[in-house]
Design goal:
- By secondary structure, this protein is mainly alpha-helical.
- It folds into two domains: 22-123; 125-161, no CATH class.
- The chain is built from five helices and two strands.
- The protein has a two-stranded antiparallel ribbon.
- 0% of the residues are buried.
- Residues 57-123 form a coiled coil.
- It comes from Caloenas nicobarica (Nicobar pigeon).
- Keywords: Coiled coil.
- This is KIF17 protein.
Length: 162
């Protein structure tokens, strides 16, 4: 009965040693190929996120351990990224405060200079070209090379009566 069962279970190819050898070679090749793929995935992705998903586990505990390690690594990366974001935000906030204080200081200086100009303008002689500030502003030109304004020279225009 056992002899008949062995012949029937494998079919007509049950005693074919060549076929058995071929199946063993295929299985061995498949196992080697799987190991090569796993090694390649581990090398390309250091954090192991891809290969954990493709790995075949013998027990559920191994799978849980591997995925727990992956989760811990991802949480560490997340914490590092959040810390970096907080650092950048605090740096940005400090720069913003610095820029705002600079703008306020420059606005105060501008107001001072404007008030000085308004007071001094009345003291300038009427026959000088500096008595008209709007004309001076129109004639002034910004020089990009030197980074300053080119202001016309003061000229006193004397009018003679006949």
């Amino acid at each position: 009965l056992q002899m008949l069962e062995r012949e029937v279970v494998g079919g007509e190819q049950a005693k074919n040693k060549d076929l058995k050898e071929k199946q063993k070679r295929r299985k061995k090749y498949a196992d080697e190929r799987r190991m090569q793929l796993l090694a390649a995935l581990q090398q390309t992705d250091e954090d192991g996120s891809d290969w954990v998903l493709l790995n075949v586990y013998d027990t559920i505990q191994e799978e849980v351990r591997a995925k727990s390690k992956l989760l811990e690594k991802m949480q560490n990366k997340l914490r590092a990224a959040e810390t970096e974001i907080k650092d950048l935000q605090s740096e940005f906030e400090l720069e913003k405060i610095d820029y705002l204080s600079t703008i306020r200081r420059l606005e105060r200086d501008l107001m001072l200079f404007q008030q000085l100009l308004d007071r001094v303008q009345t003291l300038v002689r009427r026959d000088c070209n500096y008595s008209n500030l709007e004309k001076i502003r129109r004639e002034s030109v910004w020089d990009d090379e030197t980074g300053c304004w080119k202001i016309p020279e003061p000229v006193i225009q004397k009018t003679r009566l006949p």
